[in-house]
Design goal:
heterodimer; A: about 120 residues; mainly beta; seven-stranded mixed sheet; four-stranded antiparallel sheet; about 0% helix; globular; B: about 110 residues; five-stranded antiparallel sheet; about 55% strand
Chain lengths: ~120, ~110
């Protein structure tokens, strides 16, 4: 159980375009999902908390108008990187809070590697 | 942003030996602690969670928590080459969020 998928796994785009990344909980309903970004040889940095049916909560320093998050259902959250630039190139990983066990156990999707040319 | 420190450099251990990883955290109010394993180019996978002071064992892994010292550790017994990865310490804080350490790379030498 607690399987999380992400799509696409890898994307290359031109500077100035927008990219949408999907995160799905496959075998459970997730009222809360999280979006992280990881640069090479660095740790995961939380970008935002995605809450089903309400606005996302962004961490300090993360531009909400650049990183649009939508959590329209209990199994799907999307992250859209708008007007992407080379500095947005990174590994984007989502996680979903497990419905069983403790309240803050998170299971991660496989990640999306974004390269902006 | 809450601070989670994993200061050890890469750890090389011979196959069959014990690997020991340490982590300290800044938020004294944190109540949940996790160890994740991350292979190169992949996303983290949960190994252990611990919430109470003391030891928690799961197979070859043992997590140890000392809230008074704000310290959590992970022991890997009978290390295998497949254990070679980066191990991330994560600490829970407000609104179910996690703060991650930078990770410790473990290399198990056959």
């Amino acid at each position: 159980g607690a399987v999380v998928s992400q799509h696409p796994s890898r994307v290359i785009c031109k500077s100035g375009t927008s990219v949408k990344i999907e995160c799905r909980s496959l075998d459970f309903q997730a009222t809360t999902m999280f979006w992280y970004r990881q640069f090479p040889k660095k740790s995961l940095m939380l970008m935002a908390t995605s809450n089903e049916g309400s606005k996302a909560t962004y961490e300090q320093g993360v531009e909400k108008d650049k990183f649009l998050i939508n959590h329209a259902s209990l199994t799907l959250s999307t992250l859209t990187v708008t007007s992407a630039h080379p500095e947005d190139s990174s590994f984007y990983i989502c996680s979903a809070r497990s419905p069983s066990g403790t309240t803050d156990t998170q299971y991660f999707g496989p990640g999306t590697r974004l390269t902006v040319l | 942003q809450k601070e989670v420190e994993q200061n050890s450099g890469p750890l090389s251990v011979p196959e069959g030996a014990i690997a020991s990883l340490n982590c300290t955290y800044s938020d004294r109010g944190s109540q949940s602690f996790f160890w994740y394993r991350q292979y190169s180019g992949k996303s983290p996978e949960l190994i252990m969670s611990i919430y109470s002071n003391g030891d928690k064992e799961d197979g070859r892994f043992t997590a140890q928590l000392n809230k008074a010292s704000q310290y959590v550790s992970l022991l890997i017994r009978d290390s295998q080459p497949s254990d070679s990865a980066t191990y991330l310490c994560a600490v829970g804080y407000g609104n179910n969020r996690l703060a991650f350490g930078k990770g410790n790379q473990v290399v198990v030498i056959p």
